[in-house]
UniProtKB/TrEMBL annotation:
It comes from the Bacteria. The lineage of its organism: Bacteria, Bacillati, Actinomycetota, Actinomycetes, Propionibacteriales. The keyword Acetylation does not apply. Keywords: Signal, Transport. This is ABC transporter substrate-binding protein.
Length: 444
């Protein structure tokens, strides 16, 4: 997922590797307005239609491989790279689609974009017969992300989630039984009392909202409810759940376990602190890609000391709600080749593609059948894969709203930085501000 929901975009390359049409890709990423559409050829050199597939910068080499595989005698798929930031991805795609850009055929979408884009009429509806064929195989978490107004507007490709990564020796030193659920308070205190740290995503961006949302849901609440009412959605963050979330953030910010870069931390910054030159390491919440990152870079002895557990509880005894992210595939409503684009999207999201993304790039599947193949391959510890699958299935998506961008922006504005969060004031202030933003009475 991109650097918020999902996915390690903050670490991803900013240029495309192995490009088959680097010049055309450069034009596509240089501008976002509909004017750029005239620069993207609708047909290849052989006269076949060219379908532009806009992708986030995670697993690009695998995307290019599947673009080749899913190209046919009737059309060719060309990969175009989106920016690394989820916000910039949304902006570029929204500008194109608002301009009714016919060259935006297929696109990787953060799950929170689906409702907004579908509500705006920018996405083709997924055929009922195809969704009927795969619906029973799709995990519940990603299945929730592709629907809007009781219709399906995207196909899940991979489904991301966060778990608690930790050094086993640090947990043992702290006396934590990691076979049992642990709370944020326990994790923070264990790290602080034993010279360790706690890694989170605290920068002013989407991943910080992911953390806040998971904390609120883990306390039994929601940031907003009744999102189908659009701007009239019920703002719920000024609640006991909101205050419990704020207490966790405040506790970490004031703790010796807080990492020095807490207010600007992202998915990548805390990775190196798992194995520091000095000290016992960390507890860290992060996405599925973290395992492959460590498996490819640390010694066998260090990897043996890496542990994982379900996302921490906000409130002791209340089951946590791990974040759900990933990537869904949408088909542009203004594509000049809508049938071909839909067929390509179906090919791109097939089981074999999901399995390859998991094994090659650490981006876990959205379907049960793909998970079974990942487990049988043996490249990942089976208990870790099962933890990911359970976390996706039982996790908590962010609010599904056509106005999600406003919701996220308002929360970031009032909850950042983590060092300023106060349970007595932040939930209340953010609720008032969010309500005003949704009603058009305040600007972000």
């Amino acid at each position: 997922m991109t650097n918020h929901s999902g996915d390690p975009a903050s670490l991803a390359p900013t240029t495309r590797r192995g490009s088959r049409r680097s010049a055309r890709r450069g034009l596509a990423t240089a501008a976002a307005l509909g004017l750029t559409a005239t620069l993207l050829a609708a047909c290849g050199d052989d006269g076949k239609p060219v379908l532009n597939w806009y992708v986030n910068p995670d697993g690009v080499a695998t995307f290019e491989k599947w673009a080749e595989k899913c190209s046919t005698d009737d059309y060719e798929i060309d990969v175009q790279l989106l920016p690394s930031s989820a916000t910039e991805q949304r902006t570029q795609l929204a500008r194109r689609l608002a301009a009714e850009d016919s060259s935006t055929d297929i696109m990787n979408l953060d799950p929170v974009f689906v409702a907004e884009f579908a509500n705006a009429g920018w996405l083709q509806e997924i055929p009922e017969d195809h969704w009927g064929e795969i619906e029973g195989d799709v995990l519940e978490g990603p299945a929730e992300t592709v629907t809007w107004d009781d219709k399906v507007y995207a196909l899940p490709l991979w489904a991301n989630t966060q778990v608690l990564w930790y050094r086993k020796t640090l947990a043992e030193q702290a006396g934590l039984d990691m076979s049992q659920p642990v709370t944020w308070q326990q994790v923070i205190d264990a790290a602080a009392d034993n010279g360790g740290t706690v890694g989170v995503q605290g920068n002013k961006y989407e991943a910080y909202v992911v953390w806040i949302n998971a904390l609120v849901q883990g306390a039994g609440g929601e940031i907003v409810a009744d999102t189908e009412k659009g701007r009239d959605a019920s703002v719920e963050i000024d609640s006991d759940a909101g205050r419990a979330a704020a207490e966790v953030i405040q506790r970490l910010a004031e703790s010796e376990a807080a990492q020095p870069d807490l207010s600007v931390s992202n998915e990548g910054t805390s990775l190196g602190l798992m194995y520091p030159e000095e000290g016992p390491g960390e507890f860290m919440v992060n996405w599925t890609f973290a395992y492959k990152n460590y498996a490819d870079t640390v010694s066998p002895e260090q990897l043996e000391d890496l542990g994982w557990a379900r996302y921490p509880q906000t409130v002791e005894g209340e089951e946590s709600k791990p974040p759900v992210g990933g990537i869904d595939i949408g088909v542009g409503a203004y594509s000049e080749n809508p049938d071909e684009a839909m067929a390509a999207a179906q090919c791109i999201t097939q089981k074999d593609a999901q399995v390859e993304l998991a094994l090659t790039d650490g981006l876990m599947p959205s379907t049960e059948s793909a998970y079974e193949e990942v487990i049988s391959d043996g490249s990942y510890p089976e208990d870790l894969v099962e933890l990911w699958r359970t976390s996706v299935d039982e996790g908590g998506p962010r609010p599904e709203s056509a106005f999600y961008a406003l919701i996220s922006g308002a929360i970031q504005e009032r909850w950042h930085s983590p060092t300023s969060v106060d349970p007595d004031s932040t939930p209340d202030n953010s609720a008032e501000y969010l309500e005003a933003v949704l009603k058009g009475e305040a600007l972000l």
